[in-house]
What does this fold into?
Amino acid sequence: MDKYKRLASNTIILALGQFSSRFLVIIMMRFYTEMLSTDGYGTVGLIIDTCVILMGVVTLSINDSLIRFGLDKKYDKRAVFSIGLITVLTGLLIFGLFTPLISTIDTFKGYTVWIYFYIVSGSIKSCCSLFARSAGYVRLFAVDGLFTTVTNIAFNMLFMLGLGMGVKGYLLSVILSDAASIVFVFYMARLKDYIQLFGLSRNLRSSMYRYSLPLIPTNIMWWLIGVSAGFFISHYMGIDSTGLYKAAYRFPNIIIIISLIFSQAWNMSAITENNSRTIARFYTNVFNIFQSVVYIMAAGLMLTIRPALSIFSSEEFHEAYRFSSILIMAVVFTCFSTFAGSVYVASKKSMRSMVTAIIGAAVNILLNFILIPTLGENGLYGAGLATLASYLIIFVVRAVDTRKIVLIDIKLPKMLLNIIILTAMGVIVATVQNEPVYYISLSLLFLIAVIINFRAGINAIHMIRKKENKSVSP
It folds into this structure.
């Protein structure tokens, strides 16, 4: 199959399974905000953010190696999965000894057991589902995303609405839905056939660890960028403001969700096509299309963020739209940074990924420390600006650095024009109160963004339909 067609096919399959599941979560946002209130919503956000980074530390980020080495035909898939699973299970057993330390953090008191099993179920689920995707079970991976979400929502209804368990009910729902996913994927992908306890290659184990270990600090840095604002806001403005900030980030995350679905398919193509003589043109063509889609989604979200928050969240969260425009700009550069990071994935340059993440995290923490207390009651704007600045810097550094590996044309004039349009829309969202002026001006700018980026979509269709050796560069 032509590489463009393969990329499109994998993207569509993953989108059908995962976007529907993500959309269900968005619909459930009003339910969560009403069941948890701003305090509970903020607590859940901090717990989940903390668990995500602990999973990487506990498992040595070995799940990233499952994708990179599982997709590479040079390596035995049984050995790759076995090394990954053994590493995960060993890490979870050791982590269990240190679990009581979690209760020393005031926010997490009373949730120690729930956090531990959240990490256990999430780590094993990721190990199984990611390997299944690398082993060629792309459709199963997509279906599992929908299956997990449906079971999660069913448990939400039982534990949060039916039993009124609040934060604990939310965590228990995730734990049980992850457990159901493990059983489902393990059976459907016949993962028992990939388990090998003895005779595993030491060279392969060393290679997988050399790749994954630098990703521990990398993921910690990404985590810091994502959650440091929440901790600063909680300290300077209160936990209710943290919940408001999390709500403001919920809808911009739609762009990241769609981007991550594409990135899952793209990383598969980047790895399998890594030695292609036309790899630079492939990256350039795909990035040109990718950034056009991101711009249109961001402009569309700027246009609809105000009514969306009023519909899908309770009244106390409605004012979050005012500073969500900054976060929409931030996720644009998050998407671009992730795409640039695919070069490091394909070339196994995880150390470079770590360095760029450290730079971004340092900028983020410094600006949060300065801006949130300085701006006082407008501190949420400061948190948004710190997030935007950190992702922008990461993208710039990666865009320059990755040219040493793959010469990608990022279409800078087009990028600058789109950023100007999105900035103008962001200013309108944050400052204009007159509704007719608000919606008319945003609609006109959205239309301009669509016109500017429409051609890339047409070129994408041409590239998919043409044979690889006749592909055109947009």
